[in-house]
DNA sequence: TAAAATATTTAAGTATGCTTAAATTTTAAA
DNA sequence: TTTAAAATTTAAGCATACTTAAATATTTTA
């Protein structure tokens, strides 16, 4: 299947399962930087290939086949991120950009070899779980998004979900990396901001950030 | 530039510089599994982009720009082959097939990281030289393919380019190993066969073999 | 060197994956 | 609840990278 198709089903999966956002064509279009018309067009085409269910004006819903394709692409993406992070001195943002291209040009065989070389990792460098060969995510995710974390509790950063370079630069500068220990000082519910302590520094983060930083309870 | 364009200029370079074969559209078409018409079409298009010089019914000639693009793609191909060979237990044939896809989705940055990780290798697993960052091949490869070797001359085997077990078994049995001294007795140009002497034995090899055995002059 | 074979080119057409513009439907607001 | 705004869909069109078929040029061979 083509790169356009793979990216289309991947985006539906990400919006639907991962972000619980609307999967109507316009939303897909925004993510893929194409027009709404193009997204509608593609949706109708893919429904004939049994990759998704399309009803006019309704959100797009992946079929089992479509979800399998999405998870296969996501698996390859996360394996590439893991490998590049392991081998090379590159920023998470750069690694993400490379993986975004490589994921579509990778045989199942190569994906398996990458996985084996890395010792079949369960998570990529962002903390996102890597689907197995059958497209199944076997890990149970107990993480909470920072914007919903409990005041006064201590957590460990488990995932940084973004493809924005400035975000990663900011995180790196301020010690917001996977595994870092942080304390939620205060949730300002009216302004949607969160005050945290990380590495003895106090930071005030707005929701753009606290919605994409995931935490696990500190034990 | 698109995958189709990259493969087009790469093929011209390979036919012209590496194999000294004809670069008329039909030959390119055969390598790329497209029709002659498509190749002619592409040739005219790429000439307007200053990647090659196209004159009707004449062989295609890469411009400096086109050659640079070709060498950049070849660099990435050979770096990928080197990395995959280094990391994974995969046949040279499989590695080649993966590299054929990955070469078009690799930033210059990533190519440089791969090169650095491997200690800036000068040759890939096939023995082919890897162009440097500027597209320059700094090693001087003086080897000739056996099918084009000169009758009556004596050579030394420098490379056996295959991933076929039976080929290697045959070579081993008959003393065709790296460094072995051989004499080219006769090139049968009509039947595309070559008669050689190696370790006092006479062998008659067909082009399947003589196209993948490389020789250096014996001094 | 003329005819036959082969290659190249031109022309017309197709699938993919987009675009813009206009029509339609849904959603949100007054 | 009617209207305005926003989103979706339809329609027409475009670029890329091919295809087939026919015309033309080149090469080979007899």
What would you note in describing this structure?
Two copies of one chain form a homodimer. Chain A is of the alpha+beta class and 219 residues long. Chain A folds into three domains: 3-62, Arc Repressor Mutant, subunit A (Orthogonal Bundle), CATH 1.10.10.10; 74-137, Orthogonal Bundle (Arc Repressor Mutant, subunit A); 144-217, SH3 type barrels, CATH 2.30.30. Helices cover 43% and strands 17% of the residues of chain A. Chain A has helices at 3-18, 25-32, 36-48, 64-87, 92-102, 108-117, 165-173, 207-210, and strands at residues 52-53, 61-62, 144-145, 154-160, 181-188, 193-198, 201-206, 213-217. In chain A, the strands form two sheets. Chain A has a six-stranded antiparallel β-sheet with strand order 3-8-4-5-6-7. In chain A, α1 packs across α4 (64-87), α4 packs across α5 and α4 crosses α6. The radius of gyration of chain A is 18 Å and the shape is globular. The relative contact order of chain A is 0.10. At the A-B interface, α5 and α6 of A face α5 and α6 of B. The first copy, chain A, binds a DNA duplex (30 and 30 nucleotides) through α3.
């Amino acid at each position: 299947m083509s790169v356009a198709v793979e990216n289309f089903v991947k985006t539906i999966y990400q919006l639907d399962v991962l972000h619980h956002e609307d999967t109507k064509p316009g939303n897909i279009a925004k993510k893929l930087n194409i027009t709404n018309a193009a997204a509608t067009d593609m949706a109708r085409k893919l429904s004939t290939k049994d990759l998704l269910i399309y009803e006019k004006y309704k959100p797009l819903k992946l079929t089992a086949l479509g979800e399998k394709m999405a998870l296969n692409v996501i698996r390859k993406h996360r394996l590439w991120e893991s490998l590049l992070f392991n081998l090379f001195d590159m920023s998470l943002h750069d690694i993400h950009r490379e993986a975004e291209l490589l994921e579509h040009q990778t045989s199942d065989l190569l994906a398996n070899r990458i996985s084996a070389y890395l010792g079949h990792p369960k998570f990529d460098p962002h903390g996102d779980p890597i689907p197995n060969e059958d497209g199944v995510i076997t890990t149970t995710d107990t993480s909470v998004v920072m914007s919903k974390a409990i005041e006064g509790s201590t957590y460990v950063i488990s995932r940084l979900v973004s493809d924005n370079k400035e975000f990663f630069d900011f995180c790196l500068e301020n010690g917001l990396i996977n595994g870092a220990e942080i304390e939620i000082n205060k949730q300002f519910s009216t302004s949607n901001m969160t005050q945290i302590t990380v590495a003895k520094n106090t930071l005030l983060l707005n929701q753009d950030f606290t919605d994409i930083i995931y935490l696990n309870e500190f034990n």
